[in-house]
Amino acid sequence: METRHLLLAKYLLQKAKEVFSKEDSMSCGLAVSLCQDSVEMLVRAVARELDADYKKEFHLLVDGIKNAKKNPEGKELPLKAKMLHLNQARVGFKHYGNLPDAQDAAKYLEDTEACLRQAIPLFFNIDYDSISLADLIINSVVRNKLKSAEQYCHKDEFKECIRECAEAEKLVSHPLHQIIPRAESNMHRVSIPDSLGSHAERDYVERTASNVLKYIHDYLNGLRDLTMAALLDIKPEHLLRFKHLAPHVNQMGDGTLVVHHRKTQYSRDEAEFCIEYMINYALTVQRHLAK
């Protein structure tokens, strides 16, 4: 079964969603191109599954699925006409430099996902949502944490889901500290010698200096996170939302992770966002560190 090709088809669709911007015609063209790549990956996987000639051109392959050797029911690619139109749009962009309209590109994204959601269970008897992009992550510990997060989400255990995402983020981010270290956690601690003023005066100076240094500490780490996001091409608004939602995680000397939640309850939307963000983050870091 062509499970890896289905995984890659879903990944290409995800990248199309990420690159798309209604304000930028070039990003619309790239999104259309990635959508067509996603559908073509799917169609060629279907052709292999049905023992059809998967080396044909895309439009011939789409038409040929119905008469494939192992397709006695004559099943066709869902949204066939729309996918052929998507292919024409991609040819127009790739070969002739025709930039698609933002509204059309958004519709192609919607149609591509609908095609994948219908075609994968139709031809492979696999639920689209059960295909996890976390399987593309090489680090087995991070991969298993994010797959565990997905399972918690399916069971509506959103707090546990986001905890797993936060722990995964801690593990993924660890190698990045060697590139741009975080500010020292104890830099805001101040101690004034007893010889310098009364106890009340020393206490006032210590608290004032500590508050100022704590502000500098938090500012430097925030600036560091945004700088790292820029280097990794991660949207700042996504980073900030994840930081707002995810609990704080400390790693002890023995490697144990200690989690401190900021909230007691989370929504499905928040849990699904954290999963999607962390899978993308882990894959992005994986790709950059491999260079």
Low-confidence stretches: none
Report the major sheet. Answer: 2 strands, antiparallel
> What is the structural class?
mainly alpha
The number of helical runs is 10
- What integer is the average pLDDT? 89
Give the C-alpha Rg.
Answer: 25 Å
| Major sheet: arrangement of strands | 1-2
In which range does the helix fraction lie?
A: 55-70%
The percent range for strand residues is: under 5%
The count of β-strands is 2
Can you write the helix and strand succession as a string? HHHHHHHHHEEH
- What gap, in angstroms, lies between the N and C termini? 31 Å
Number of domains: 2
- What shape does the CA trace take? elongated
Report what the structure shows.
The protein has about 290 residues and is mainly alpha-helical. It has two domains: about 5-130, Four Helix Bundle (Hemerythrin (Met), subunit A) (Up-down Bundle), CATH 1.20.120; about 135-290, no CATH class. The chain is about 65% helix and about 5% strand. The protein has helices at about 5-20, 25-50, 60-65, 80-95, 100-125, 140-155, 160-175, 200-230, 235-245, 270-290, and strands at about 250, 255-260. A two-stranded antiparallel ribbon has the order 1-2. The longest helix is centred in the C-terminal third of the chain and has 34 residues, at about 200-230. The two termini are about 30 Å apart.
